[in-house]
Design a protein that fits this description.
single chain, about 300 residues, Rossmann fold, 8-stranded mixed β-sheet, 10 helices
């Protein structure tokens, strides 16, 4: 194992030795735990021209968003970012360093979406909010200081799932599609029998007990287990979707489904670039202050988004 990853896992184990596991907490307790943990990783974000927290209209009320605008002369292209957290935890605040790095490096206005969370709002509430946020951002580009002649949608983990599902929904309803879907260790399927779940499902930050706890909160009915807008790998037809840039680590339970979904996109004629990072665990892009390979991955993601939004 990468010694930096081993040291990080050892540090996490020691720091949480007496704390209840994620799946032993209530959703509210788990959210507070996650905000504290990832908040500690947000130090050292790049300077931006502005960071504004506000709300926008949504299908079930106001949706909180964080708008991050880079330094320089705008207007800038748009990136709608969808945070991870198993559909239960996480927020634009917990991911603010990563989204700031993307705003600064890719020279894009980032709209980070705080979609409704389960179990209070199970599937498909999160997807409904993400689709609404994309449509609002495109319709209100001038207010955001954005030039949406080019735009992208991206997200990590549950946010990678919601990014892919949003693109499916936009395609299937005849809406404008982004120039890139940026899929960071996304959850594309609920089939947990894949080898990477069995191999990496314990001891590598994201554990099977936690995954099962997330799914219990997010899926109130059995029919949602095969709904393509809940699990994009169940979509029969992936043709016509935007180009995809995908990232995953070899110690991630979601490794295999990244390859499955990426290969299916490629077979459907969608341009796909899958980057695999040795010895990296789930969530590693947010750990770039401690992991050298995470720094490389962040730089790769920034370059992919920048290339899509600022083509030569």
């Amino acid at each position: 194992m990468d010694p930096q990853v081993q040291a990080l896992l050892d540090m996490m184990t020691a720091a949480n030795a007496d704390a209840p596991k994620l799946w032993e907490q209530t959703p509210q307790e788990a959210r507070a735990t996650a905000e504290a943990m990832f908040g500690a990783m947000n130090a050292g974000a790049p300077d931006l021209a502005s960071t504004v927290d506000r709300t926008i209209p949504g299908p079930a009320g106001e949706i909180p968003i964080k708008v991050q605008t880079p330094l320089g002369d705008g207007p800038f292209p748009l990136l709608v970012y969808i945070h991870g957290g198993g559909f239960v935890i996480g927020s634009p605040d917990s991911h603010s360093r990563l989204s700031a790095l993307l705003a600064d490096g890719a020279k894009a206005v980032v709209v980070s979406v705080h979609y409704r969370l389960a179990p209070e709002h199970p599937a498909p509430a999160a997807l409904e909010d993400c689709v609404a946020a994309v449509k609002w951002s495109l319709a209100n580009a001038a207010e955001l200081g954005a030039d949406v002649s080019r735009f992208a949608i991206g997200g990590d983990s549950a946010g990678g799932n919601l990014t892919a599902a949003t693109c499916l929904k936009l395609r299937d309803t005849g809406q404008r599609l982004p120039d890139l879907q940026y899929l960071i260790y996304g959850a594309f399927d609920i089939d947990h029998s894949k080898p990477s779940y069995l191999r990496n499902g314990s001891g590598y930050f994201l554990e099977m007990d936690g995954i099962n706890w997330f799914m219990k909160q997010y899926l109130p009915t059995e029919d949602l287990r095969t709904d393509p807008y809940v699990w994009p790998n169940h979509a029969e037809n992936l043709a016509g979707l935007p180009p995809a840039f995908m990232q995953v680590g070899t110690l991630d339970p979601l490794l295999d489904e990244t390859f499955v979904y990426g290969n299916r996109l490629a077979l459907a004629g969608v341009p796909v670039d899958i980057r695999v990072y040795p010895d990296m665990i789930h969530g590693f892009l947010q750990m770039d202050a401690m992991l050298d390979r995470a720094k490389v991955a962040v730089a790769d993601g920034v370059a992919a988004v920048k290339a899509a939004l600022h083509p030569a």
